[in-house]
């Protein structure tokens, strides 16, 4: 029988083998990067949960899109002072709202500083319970509160379908770990401090369900924990001549709603029908059914797999 001679491998075979090897290595690298990203996010979550007292300042940007696709960016600044498990004082000052929120574990107080009006609600419980009640019962989600909850990792990772470790980024001259995540309704990114104190420095949410992909972002500064946090009894002390009203009457505490009302007034005055502003929730959980009826009018208050949250 004649001996079969093996032909040398052609270029096509060699290229195919190289491609398969590259695909295999790429898959392994992607898997390792995903695992590392999850590990860094979990470390941040554990670090935050372990802090009994937290204080920081923040700058937020909330992007809205008009019916004719013009984008507006609403900027505000504020502070957060938190004492786990059940106390928080938050301020936010923007172009359309100047608000203070105080929760002492039993009573929530929301103060509209410019109008010198405040409303109070009895919501005894933890901060997690407060966030849920504001979102589900009072339709007042707190943007960015995902980062204040007791188990940040589980809330952020809910419904996540894709995870990427993007290496590092530099903010204010300091290097941070940069992670990116995808879910059905939003993409979100987070920059985490390196070292022993892995706090979140920047957090950006992009809505995929709203045309033009509006974003919400919060940047944190002046991070303090433990004994570095100034003492606070979280008691509300009404300013002089402040008037208590029902929560429904406290209207000037939301940048989006205020600019939307202004747009409606302008449209009415000009007797022209324009498309409503499109805006989104700066939190991550999906709008509840009770909120969806408002979507066609004010667009979608969207988020990703996290809970939203009255506003950072």
Describe this structure in words.
26% of the residues lie in helices and 33% in strands. It is α+β, with helices and mostly antiparallel strands and 312 residues long. A hairpin with a 2-residue loop joins strand 7 and strand 8.
Label this structure with key terms.
disordered C terminus; 312 residues; 12 strands; alpha+beta; twelve-stranded mixed sheet
Number of strands: 12
Share of residues in strands: 25-35%
Major sheet summary line = 12 strands, mixed
User: Shape, please?
Assistant: globular
The run of helices and strands is HEEEEEEHHEEEEEEHHH
Topology:
Blueprint: H1 11-50, E1 53-65, E2 71-83, E3 87-94, E4 98-103, E5 107-112, E6 117-122, H2 127-136, H3 152-157, E7 160-171, E8 174-183, E9 186-193, E10 200-207, E11 215-225, E12 243-244, H4 255-270, H5 289-292, H6 295-298
Parallel strand pairs: 6-12
Antiparallel strand pairs: 1-2, 1-11, 2-3, 3-4, 4-5, 5-6, 7-8, 8-9, 9-10, 10-11
């Amino acid at each position: 029988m004649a001996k079969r001679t093996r032909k040398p491998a052609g270029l096509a075979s060699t290229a195919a083998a190289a491609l398969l090897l590259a695909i295999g290595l790429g898959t392994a690298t992607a898997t390792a990067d995903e695992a590392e990203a999850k590990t860094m996010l979990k470390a941040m979550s554990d670090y935050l949960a372990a802090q009994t007292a937290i204080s920081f300042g923040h700058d937020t940007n909330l992007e809205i899109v008009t019916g004719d696709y013009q984008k507006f960016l609403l900027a505000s600044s504020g502070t957060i002072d938190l004492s786990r498990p059940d106390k928080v004082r938050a301020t936010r000052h923007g172009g359309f709202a100047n608000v203070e929120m105080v929760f002492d574990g039993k009573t929530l107080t929301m103060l509209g500083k410019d109008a010198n009006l405040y409303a109070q609600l009895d919501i005894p419980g933890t901060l997690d319970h407060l966030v849920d009640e504001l979102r589900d019962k009072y339709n007042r989600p707190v943007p960015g509160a995902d980062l204040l909850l007791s188990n940040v990792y589980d809330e952020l990772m809910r419904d996540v379908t894709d995870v990427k470790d993007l290496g590092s980024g530099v903010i204010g001259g300091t290097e941070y770990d940069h992670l990116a995540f995808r879910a059905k309704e939003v993409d979100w990114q987070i920059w985490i401090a390196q070292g022993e104190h892995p706090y979140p420095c920047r957090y950006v949410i992009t809505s995929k369900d709203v045309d033009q992909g509006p974003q919400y972002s919060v940047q944190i500064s002046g991070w303090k924990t433990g004994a570095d946090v100034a003492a606070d009894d979280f008691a509300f002390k009404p300013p002089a001549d402040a008037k208590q009203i029902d929560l429904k009457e406290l209207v000037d505490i939301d940048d989006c709603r205020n600019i939307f009302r202004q747009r409606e007034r302008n449209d009415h005055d000009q007797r022209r029908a324009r498309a409503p502003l499109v805006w989104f929730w700066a939190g991550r959980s999906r709008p509840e059914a009770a909120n969806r009826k408002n979507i066609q009018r004010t667009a979608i208050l969207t988020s990703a797999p996290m809970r939203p949250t009255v506003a950072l």
